[in-house]
Design a protein that fits this description.
2 domains; mainly beta; rod-shaped; about 10% helix; five-stranded mixed beta sheet; about 240 residues; 14 strands
Length: about 240
Amino acid sequence: MALTIAHPWTASAPTILPAIQRPNYDFSDTINVTADPAAFPKDLISSITVTRAIAGQTLDDDGNTTSEQRVILLPTVTITYGTSHTDSTNTGYEDATITFSGKYGDPFLDTFKLVDVGKGFFERRGGNTGLSSLDKYNNELYERFRGQSTFQENAHIVRGFDQLPDVDKEDLFSLEQDMTSKIVVTHTVTINYDKWTATNTISTTPAEINQTEIITITHDINNNFGAISTLLRQRHKQS
């Protein structure tokens, strides 16, 4: 269901878009912006801009809470203007629609540790007889690494699922999940508008032109701590 920002702008400004949950980051919705076209003089939209930001709290290596900017893919924003009024140099609009479509990138900063394919550290299998060829091979690897610098010390550390390399290049052996319960995306909608006269021309009174209203709309992306297994399975299927 589309949200509506109506004139006067603060009267029915939405505060939040419908929440979505990991791992489903697809999103589409609309925000209708309605000016004051009922009678002259009337306020008409001259332009709309939308900016977005995303941030969240995470833990650093020492367990301290730090503010960390999360740069992710955001859905596409399209602005479509409706009924217009035009004089020789200016155009104003009675309404407009802001459309969100596409999907978010994964905003959660899970920590993955990886090694090159085929260089993993395997647990030694007990005994010397009755072992499969795979267990014998694993034992050889165990002996090769024992007493030396283990691969964990030289692992490739990646923050964020979207930063993982192709599955055929590196093996995952450790995962520390981002325990943030949700990430909040802030959409800042800036509405520029002017007052128009009954003759379909823009007012010449300074106080009635080049007005701006800024409305903040939030969007929650909820974490699902079991979703990471789904994402990893999908990653392997796509390889």
